[in-house]
């Protein structure tokens, strides 16, 4: 297993793992709740579920919407039909059916591609989630479940391990759903996929410990909290993180400048002759250039914050620094990018990042590579600037001057002689 993918998977699963570790601590305190507090706790899953549905629809999170409905339907059926002993045949049949249905539905949701919400999309997928629960509810209302008890196969009657209440078949289904969810998480690497895996595990634990007091309320509440966190984090990422480069975007820059204080230097960065990459090699190569520049800037701009401003423009914020200190870091950024052997991706490029680095390091400028350079204009915040927009405007003027002087250089607004000189290719 490549180390990078494993680390990313673990990082994505950390919020869910934290909630699962917190669950036993919270459960130990539930015995101290009075009757009114217990009733309020029972209302938490429907309230959180309703809020999650609204947010999922608002932010086009289709798979999380289906998972929320799957979780809510399970909880409501448990609350309405399974509040007495499982020794009753009807209850045991319903419990057995739900223990198979939930992981099957999670498996179905895992394989759905995330393409946003539409009426057609909902009509295609929502009935699959609801129909099974509606079937069990109607069977329970018509007192049909107890008659099915004698027809249950051995795999549903035989528990996988005492004293846990999950049957052999249920454990197998939960295991398959979880493993395939992890495989999908490996390839998609999204927080939503990590959320689906954790919720599958949480419900498996809840059903295995079904005899414990308030375990269904607690598990569903924490699962819905995880869904809310995932939806809100995804919406934040869409608003503040540039998807192509992974850098914070312009909205994040505006927030940073509002709290940057009175002393900072701002650098406007532009990729030299960027249009040439798109015209010569196509937009895919242009995207490669943007990602490379973003990666090198993050590594070289130690002590500063890097943002994608838009198009081929980036911004660096040097908090607490004057232009003299900031231009030293700006020059490290500029020279790091100019020295980077940018290899145009082709069919023969290795897919593994480690092999790609080895290929790039064979020579200072391997055959088939191209040079990418940037120009930087810097401006220090002074009392003469009434707001951050004035600083950006003056940094833009310095950037324009850097381009006039031949590109591949850094120019600071208040330093008479620019430090940078064009680097030889």
TrEMBL record:
SUPFAM superfamilies: Nucleotide cyclase (SSF55073). Pfam families: GGDEF. Its EC number is 2.7.7.65. It is an enzyme of class 2 (transferase). PROSITE patterns: GGDEF. It comes from Amphritea pacifica. This is diguanylate cyclase. The keyword Cytoplasm does not apply. Residues 262-415 form the GGDEF domain. The keyword 4Fe-4S does not apply. It catalyses: 2 GTP = 3',3'-c-di-GMP + 2 diphosphate.
């Amino acid at each position: 297993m490549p180390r990078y993918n494993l680390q990313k998977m673990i990082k994505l699963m950390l919020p869910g793992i934290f909630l699962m570790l917190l669950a036993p601590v919270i459960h130990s305190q539930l015995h101290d709740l009075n009757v009114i507090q217990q009733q309020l706790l029972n209302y938490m899953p429907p309230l959180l579920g309703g809020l999650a549905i609204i947010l999922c629809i608002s932010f086009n999170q289709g798979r999380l919407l289906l998972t929320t409905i799957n979780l809510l339907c399970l909880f409501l059926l448990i609350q309405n039909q399974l509040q007495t002993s499982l020794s009753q045949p009807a209850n045991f049949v319903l419990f057995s059916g739900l223990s198979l249905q939930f992981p099957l539905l999670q498996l179905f949701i895992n394989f759905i591609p995330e393409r946003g919400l539409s009426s057609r999309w909902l009509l295609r997928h929502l009935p699959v989630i609801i129909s099974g629960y509606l079937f069990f509810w109607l069977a329970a209302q018509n007192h049909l479940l107890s008659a099915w008890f004698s027809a249950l196969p051995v795999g549903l009657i035989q528990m996988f391990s005492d004293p846990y209440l999950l049957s052999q078949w249920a454990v197998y289904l939960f295991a398959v759903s979880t493993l395939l969810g992890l495989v999908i998480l490996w390839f998609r690497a999204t927080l939503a996929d990590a959320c689906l895996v954790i919720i599958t595990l949480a419900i498996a634990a809840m059903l295995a410990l079904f005899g414990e007091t308030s375990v269904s309320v607690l598990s569903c509440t924490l699962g819905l909290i995880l869904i809310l966190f995932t939806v809100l984090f995804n919406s934040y990422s869409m608003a503040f993180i540039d998807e192509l480069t992974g850098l914070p975007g312009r909205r994040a820059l505006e927030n940073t400048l509002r709290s940057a204080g009175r002393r900072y230097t701002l650098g406007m960065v532009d990729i030299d002759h960027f249009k040439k990459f798109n015209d010569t090699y196509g937009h895919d190569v242009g995207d490669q250039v943007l990602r490379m520049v973003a990666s090198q800037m993050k590594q070289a701009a130690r002590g500063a914050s890097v943002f994608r401003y838009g198009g081929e423009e980036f911004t660096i914020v040097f908090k607490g620094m004057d232009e003299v200190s900031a231009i030293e870091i700006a020059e490290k950024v500029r020279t790091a990018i100019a020295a980077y052997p940018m290899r145009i991706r082709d069919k023969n490029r290795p897919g593994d990042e480690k092999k790609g680095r080895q290929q790039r390091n064979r020579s200072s400028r391997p055959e088939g590579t191209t040079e990418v350079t940037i120009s930087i204009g810097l401006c220090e915040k002074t009392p003469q600037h009434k707001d951050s927009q004035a600083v950006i405007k003056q940094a833009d003027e310095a950037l324009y001057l850097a381009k006039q002087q031949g590109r591949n250089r850094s120019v600071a607004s208040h330093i008479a002689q620019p430090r940078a000189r064009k680097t030889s290719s």
